Write a sequence for this structure.
């Protein structure tokens, strides 16, 4: 198949991955949120970086603050860090591709995104060039009024080249699998919704990429919307949605340790009990197409977010582990193993 | 520690007054006392908000070191484990201590939503770990 044209990919990045960052605040009782997410599977180091901004309630003098979330997992397990910036030192500039939070930044160079990490308190630095090797897909999900009205742009497959320095040791990164999405929407954490969402790191010559997303009510007793998106050779190939999918969560992960970010909220959300499943399986069927996704959670970190609806805590579990996709799409057999990165939100 | 608490009370009161109002409802007429290292303060509910009190404390006292408080705020230690290890000392009426914790829980929820508190915590961290004075 003809390779994707880098100039076209660069043009798509510029026209789709720009920050929405509205100038005004939402007139509704909910806050605008926008974030740029990056995942890098650099062998023994799995790295998640998120540049995020959110408005406070519309009637409060709380400035729109940019922060960077950094989750790194290596042989020691997960560690998580959050860094905020004063408005003059951190922003997702409206209309532009990229973001900066103090000395951490991402910006576009052609069909690549260059990521520089130099956080104040984390023992990690990095310079990575993330080259786009799949077509971006703009998506919108709005399961119901009190669930997140989410817009997102997904780039399921990129390659990362550069270096990561962790605990003083520099690791070369050479065409490691990477993922990026860009999210924006107006919703409050703490309302009656949860999400499950994930993707996989596969070898760079693997043909297939996937993104799974599912919204449910807070009790997870009713799915509101679910979809499994598949790309072949970097091009959108199949979407399985709604009743074409069935999801099985079995057992519960019992992590020995569960790092929490930000640390202060551990006082309000102690312990290691979670509702992360021990195994998560998705079966999709449409016509003659069949696909099975099997994710086995292995390790987790808990991102704690003060509910905007009341005084509870929303928990977003960042989870990694082995993932497998297998089946047949348009007569082509699929069997890929890799590493999965999933989020399980508990309201 | 006092500048950390004073600054956080002021900011949360300014931006999330309903948090302090709810915390004040939990306290009722209690005046819990917090002793962190050599610093002491008494908290009370007055006019629908939380503030420091000039009166003597009573019914519930929580005592811990700056090092332990910082470790708790950084998420490095678990509160229950710190109590069991004797690094957090709780004295007083059990129900008053429970109300104090509920008030603190609501207050902390507000604190985390105020961006400036991260820098304030950073200054406290530098003072505790650097052995310097904490000016807030």
């Amino acid at each position: 198949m003809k390779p994707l044209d880098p100039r076209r990919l660069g043009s798509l990045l510029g026209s789709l991955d720009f920050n929405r960052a509205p100038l005004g605040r939402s007139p509704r009782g909910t806050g605008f949120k926008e974030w740029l997410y990056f995942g890098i599977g650099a062998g023994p180091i799995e790295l998640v970086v998120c540049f995020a901004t959110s408005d406070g309630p519309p009637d409060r003098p709380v400035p729109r603050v940019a922060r960077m979330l950094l989750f790194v997992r290596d042989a020691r397990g997960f560690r998580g860090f959050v860094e905020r910036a004063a408005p003059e030192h951190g922003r997702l500039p409206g209309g532009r591709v990229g973001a900066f939070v103090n000395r951490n930044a991402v910006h576009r160079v052609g069909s690549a995104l260059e990521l520089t990490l130099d956080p104040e308190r984390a023992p990690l630095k990095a310079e990575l060039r993330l080259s786009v090797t799949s077509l971006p897909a703009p998506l919108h999900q709005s399961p119901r009024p009190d669930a997140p009205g989410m817009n997102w742009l997904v780039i399921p497959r990129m390659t990362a080249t550069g270096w990561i320095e962790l605990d003083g040791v520099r690791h070369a990164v050479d065409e490691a699998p990477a993922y990026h999405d860009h999210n924006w929407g107006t919703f409050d954490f703490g309302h009656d919704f949860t999400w499950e969402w994930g993707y996989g790191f596969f070898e760079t010559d693997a043909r297939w990429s996937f993104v799974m997303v599912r919204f449910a009510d807070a009790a997870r007793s009713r799915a509101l919307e679910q979809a499994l998106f598949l790309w072949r050779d970097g091009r959108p190939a199949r979407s399985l949605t709604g009743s074409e999918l069935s999801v099985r969560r079995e057992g519960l992960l019992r992590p020995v340790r569960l790092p929490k970010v930000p640390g202060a909220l551990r006082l309000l959300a102690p312990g290691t009990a979670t509702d992360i499943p021990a195994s998560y399986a998705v079966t999709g069927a449409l016509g003659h197409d069949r696909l099975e996704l099997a994710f086995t959670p292995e390790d987790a970190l808990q991102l704690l977010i003060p509910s905007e609806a009341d005084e509870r805590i929303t928990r977003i579990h960042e989870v990694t582990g082995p993932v497998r996709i297998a089946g047949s799409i348009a007569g082509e057999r699929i069997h890929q193993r890799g590493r999965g990165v999933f989020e399980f939100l508990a309201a | 520690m006092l500048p950390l608490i004073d600054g956080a009370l002021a900011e949360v009161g300014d931006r999330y007054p309903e948090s302090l109002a709810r915390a004040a409802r939990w306290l009722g007429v209690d005046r819990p006392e917090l002793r962190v290292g050599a610093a002491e303060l008494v908290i009370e509910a007055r006019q629908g908000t939380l503030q420091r009190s000039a009166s003597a404390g009573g019914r519930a006292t929580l005592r811990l070191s700056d090092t332990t408080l910082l470790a708790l705020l950084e998420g490095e230690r678990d509160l229950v484990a710190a109590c069991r290890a004797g690094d957090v000392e709780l004295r007083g009426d059990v129900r008053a201590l429970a109300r104090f914790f509920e008030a603190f829980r609501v207050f902390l929820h507000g604190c985390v939503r105020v961006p400036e508190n991260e820098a304030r915590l950073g200054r406290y961290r530098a003072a505790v770990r650097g052995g310097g004075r904490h000016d807030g």
About this structure: The two ends of chain A are 44 Å apart (CA to CA).
